[in-house]
Amino acid sequence: MENAFDLPAVSDPMSRHPKIPGPGEPIRLHHSLCYGCGDDAPIGLRLKVIAGEGFTVSAQMVVEQWMQGGPGVIHGGVLTAAFDEILGTAPLTIGAPVVTAHLEVDFAKPIPLGSTLHLDAEVLAKERRKVFVRASAHLGDPENPVATAHSIFVEIDLKKHFAAYRDDAAQSRP
Ligand SMILES: CCCCCCCCCCCC(=O)SCCNC(=O)CCNC(=O)[C@H](O)C(C)(C)COP(=O)(O)OP(=O)(O)OC[C@H]1O[C@@H](n2cnc3c(N)ncnc32)[C@H](O)[C@@H]1OP(=O)(O)O
C-alpha cells in the first residue's frame, strides 16, 4: 500500500461546524484515555487543543525529558504523535470525526528538551470522506518552523468504527 498527500485541485464545500468552540476556546478532549489529549491516560501528551479562526486549531507542548530521543532533543515519534493529535482535531472544525489514514512529517531542525513547541493545524480541503490537513511546529517564531506535517484523515462513523474494539465508543466525540 502506497499513498501520498495529493491535495485535490477543488475541495468539497466546507463550513465551520456550529458547535465548535470560538477562537481561543479549548476543544473538548475526544477521549479521556487518549494518548494525545486524555487527562486520564497513564502516559500521554495531554495536549489542550485550542480552536482558531476558520478551520484552524493550535496547541502548545513543553518538551519534557521523557519525550527524549536524543540526546537532548525530542524523539521523532513523540513529535509525530503530537502532530497526529492536532491534525486529527482540526477536522472537528468542519464537523468531521476522523481517523488517521496517511501522515507525512518533515523534521527541519532539532527540538531541544525544555523548549515550548507551538503546534498549528489547518484543514485545507475535503474530498468525499478524505480530509486534507497540514500542520507546522515552531519554538516561538512562526516564520521559522522546526517541523511540518501533511495528512489525510478519513471520516468515519464513530460508533460503528470503534464498536469492535471498545464498549464505550459513544464517549468519543464530536
Ligand atoms: C475519533 C474521534 C474524532 C476526534 C479526533 C481527535 C484527534 C485524534 C488524533 C489521533 C487519530 C488517530 O491516531 S486514529 C488511529 C490510527 N488510524 C487508524 O487506526 C486507521 C486505520 N485505517 C482504517 O481504519 C481504514 O483504512 C480507514 C477508515 C482509514 C479507511 O477505510 P474505509 O472506511 O474502508 O474507507 P476506504 O473506502 O478504504 O477509503 C476511503 C477513502 O480514503 C482513501 N484512503 C484510505 N486509506 C488511505 C491512505 N492510507 N492514504 C490516502 N488515502 C486513503 C481511499 O482511497 C478513499 O478515497 P476515495 O475513493 O474517496 O478517493
From TrEMBL:
Protein's recorded name: Acyl-coenzyme A thioesterase THEM4
EC class (word): hydrolase
EC number: 3.1.2.2
Major subcellular site: membrane
Reaction catalysed by this enzyme: (5Z,8Z,11Z,14Z)-eicosatetraenoyl-CoA + H2O = (5Z,8Z,11Z,14Z)-eicosatetraenoate + CoA + H(+); tetradecanoyl-CoA + H2O = tetradecanoate + CoA + H(+); hexadecanoyl-CoA + H2O = hexadecanoate + CoA + H(+); decanoyl-CoA + H2O = decanoate + CoA + H(+)
Highest taxon of the lineage: Bacteria
Lineage of the species this protein comes from: Bacteria, Bacillati, Actinomycetota, Actinomycetes, Mycobacteriales
Residues annotated as domain Thioesterase: 72-143
Keywords (A to Z) from UniProt: Apoptosis, Cell membrane, Cell projection, Cytoplasm, Fatty acid metabolism, Hydrolase, Lipid metabolism, Membrane, Transit peptide
